[in-house]
Amino acid sequence: MDRRSFLKASAFGGSAAAATALAAPAIAQGKRTLTMVCTWPRGLAGVWDSVERVANSISAATDGQVTLDVKAAGELVGALEVFDAVTSGQADMYHGADYYFVGQHPAFAYFTAVPFGMTAPEIMTWYYGQDGMALHHELGEVFGIKSFLAGQTGAQGGGWYRKEIKSADDFKGLKFRMPGLGGQALSKLGASVQNIPGGEIYQALSSGALDGTEWIGPWSDEKLGLQEVCDYYYPAGFHEPGAALSIACNLDVFNELTPSQQKAIELAGADAHQANYAQFIANNGPALKRLIDGGTQVREFSDDVWDAFGRASVELLDSYTSDELFKKIHDSAQASMKASSAWLALSDSAYSAQRNRVLAAM
Question: pTM of the full predicted structure?
């Protein structure tokens, strides 16, 4: 579909037309400064590290010919307005989680996380070893952007709660923060789901606007102070078994760059993706221990809760497959996940289980 026709026919088309575009990227003596807006507040643990790594890598890889003027959430546009800012030309790039933009197209969720979807290694396999990246580009170009993965949190926790979750019925009426398609699935269990930017979560919990929330994992959650306002933490969740972050560049701006500069952006994203994953995994274990030592009550969802999550997730994903592009991306991701998980279950998972059993007995 022609992207201009798509935008004209969509609800976003109106906002794009109404947006005030800033001047084109600053160009002086062959150098370009691109404005990158972010869904994250400045300094937010883990996700802001990915922002800085991307910016530093692009500058280094281009010998300073391309630099980024990074704007945190609220400094130029709001956290959830970055997509519109880049597609309209108000900014040149964004760094964020693409599942924030399922209102533009639900398939964007596949480039962060979908409920009962891929783990981080499975996402990497699909994106870098199969057709995930090409599909990310195909989807983004409908809206006039060029997209790349640029961060990875690994599996995200099932969330923080004021009260223990003992059955699926406990979600009825629960005011809970969960973005993306995971949030839509949770709403099928009766939860009152809200999509609140990360920088606003603590205040919403403190004020009672939320009864619970998911954020990322023990390290980021501890930094955000969620243990101060909720007693119960569930480390395993259904909604983000692996969560990627993305950068996207306005397509016209991207096409004005040289091939080597374009490649620098792609490789900066890939570098941030793997480094960010290592960062989260390295920090989550020690952070969880600190949380437990500090009094956090760690729990696991019961099988009946997991079954309810599964039914809601499958029903939700199936409801979107009437959209041709969503189905194309969905089918590709599902096929890759099944093939990868079949091997990983017989190799990595089996080995890890035996390693843990043997070492525990010694």
Answer: 0.89
